[in-house]
Amino acid sequence: MVNLKQCKKCEQSIAKSSLKLLCGDCRGYYHLRCGKVDEVDARIMIENKAPWRRPLCENDIEIDNLRKTQQRKSLLVTQQSSSPSRSTEELELKEMIRDLQKEMRECRKSVDFISQMYEEEKKRTKALSVMVNEISRENRTLKEEVEKLKSVRNKEENKKLDKNLCITGLISDESDKENLQNKLHSLFQALEVTVPESEYKVLENIETRNGMKTVISLENKDKKYVILKARAKKGKITTSSVGVGDENTPIYINEDMSKDTYTLFKKAKELKNVDYKHVWHRDGKILARKNDNDKPVHIKNEAMLDELLG
After folding, report:
1. pTM higher than the cut 0.85
2. How far apart are CA 282 and CA 229, in angstroms?
3. Which residues form a coiled coil (predicted)?
C-alpha cells in the first residue's frame, strides 16, 4: 500500500511521487499550491537544500525578532541616559559617522539584493533548463511511440491489401465500367496469364491523373505475382496493344498500398536525383538501390529517407 503524506492546510493526501513542501518550523507537509510555491522555486529549494517555512510560521519568527529588537533599544536608551553628557562637537561628529554608516549599510543592502536576485535568476534558469530537458525527453519518447504505432498500423493496412492490384488506364471514365470485365479479360490474355472471373473481384474505380484506376482483389498473392511478372516481361502495354481501344493510352499495373506507404513512395522517387537507379515497392515495402548489383535498401520511414536524400 502506498504511504501518502497529508497536507496540513487542505488535509488532502499528497502522492508519494509529487513534489511537496516540509515546513522547517511546524514540520508539516504541504502541497505546492497550498504553500503558494511554484514548481521552479520548489526544485531550486530541493537542489540547494534550502529551508522553507509556511507564511504563518515566518510571521511568528518576525514577531519574536521584533520583540527582541525593542528590548535591545530599550536597554540602549537606559544606558545612554545614565552616561555623562558629551560636547556638542562630539555629538555632531558621532551623528555624521552614524549617517555615513547608515548610507554604507544601504549601499551594501542594495548590492546584496542585486547579487541575490542574480543568483536566484541563475537558479531559476537552471531549474527551467532541467524542466525543458525533461519535457524534450518525454516528447522524444512520445514521438518514438507514435512512430511505432504508425508503423504497426501501416503494416496491418498493407496486409489487408496484399492481394490487391491497381490497373490504371484500362478504362477511360465511369461510363466505361460496363465494358470492364471484357477489358480485364483482354488484358490477361495479352499478358498470357489465365485469371478466371471467379478468382478476382473488382473493388472500386478511382479517377486519377493518369486515368481511371481499377482496384481488383485476387484469391491469393501467388496469382498477383504471376500477373506482375507477366507485366514486367511484356514491357510497355497500351490500350491498343491489348486490343481494348484505338489509342495508345498506357496501362499501368501495380500493387495496392496504404496511404502512408504511397506518400512515402512518392517522396522516395526523389532518390533518382541522388544517384539511385531503382526505386520500387513490393508487399508494402519501399525499396531502392543505386546499381543493379547492389543490395536493396528498405526505406522504413521519412527520417530514413531524408538521411538518404542528404
Report:
1. no
2. 12
3. 86-159
